[in-house]
Amino acid sequence: TPYAGAEAFDAEQTYRVVRSRQGWLLPTRALVQQINALADNVNAQLIVLDPAFPLGLCGPGLNRPYALVGHGAEYVIPAKIPPVKQMLARTTRSAAGLIASGEYVAKPMRALANSPEIPMAVIPPGVDVDRFKPLEEYEKQRVRKKWGVADGTTLVVGVSRLVPRKGFDRVIKAATKVDGIEVLIAGKGRETKRLAKLIETTRSPSRLLGSVDDADLPDLYGAADIFAMPCHDRWFGLEQEGYGIVFVEAAAAGVPSIAGMSGGSEEAVIDGETGLIVRGNASVNDVAAVMRKLQDAKLRNRLGEAGRQRATEALSYDTLAHQLQKFLNSILGEL
């Protein structure tokens, strides 16, 4: 779909990019015809539809085999609505291959496919390990000074859309219960005003940074001692965290995470290895207890180093692109 600045981005790529005029890629007859025409033009052997819902519903109308990409909510939520579940099941069972961003979404994909003959690959979201990387101590101090962080404090950073399930209200409250903590939260969303009021009323050592320039994000991660986003389920599990790419970006920067137990977050953060997961409902006291635990520099360093190693060895774009290419080639070999 189009966005501001898309033309400049497209012109820099070594491959052809075609933008739909639609703001949303809905499974209309016109879009099916456009996809078929493009496939004819390049003599495609396989069409990959991402996301599986609603775009994936175009699949049965295409004139070539197709694969579906599932991220989380597009399978977890529609699968609980009978009419939608029926359409999604038909689309999934007709696919030549399935690509899941993690086991969290792979399970409902397998259930709807209801066939072991449909090949599946679990390929998580990746990270640019050259862009997100640990900072030297002098670089950390430079960035902290830029953001006005006091010397000697444990810096907790959060990066996300500001919506209720991310749990930043609990981070803000928890910071009032832990000595020597300072919190910086980057992002915007419908929770912005409520969180700002919460900071004011609790006198939390927390600040909302608003939208941070993309070029400044690697430094913000790298300057942190702890990354925190204690995400949690809402609406009886209908609203969950699909994965949490921010956790992987923090890991690549050598920073351990505090995560909540929601959706695919346990795959993004390995509890006790690359960070710590707050179990249960991720209460304020639970988050505060984990913050205190991570004030131990030795523990932080161990978790941060393990996170960086996992990011470079298993979650880099090059590694995951190779896995995807291998899987797509295996599908083509069966066609």
Structure description:
- With 335 residues, the chain is α/β, with parallel strands linked by helices.
- Helix content is 42%, strand content 13%.
- It is built from 14 helices and 10 strands.
- It has helices spanning 6-12, 29-42, 73-76, 82-93, 103-113, 137-146, 168-175, 192-202, 217-222, 245-252, 265-268, 284-293, 297-314, 317-334; strands at 47-49, 66-70, 97-100, 120-122, 154-159, 181-186, 206-210, 226-229, 257-260, 275-278.
- Strands 7-6-5-8-9-10 form a 6-stranded parallel beta sheet, sandwiched between helices.
- Helix 5 (103-113) links the parallel strand 3 and strand 4.
- Helix 7 (168-175) packs parallel to helix 8 and helix 10 packs across helix 13.
- The chain is elongated, with a radius of gyration of 21 Å.
- It starts with 5 loop residues before the first helix and ends with a helix.
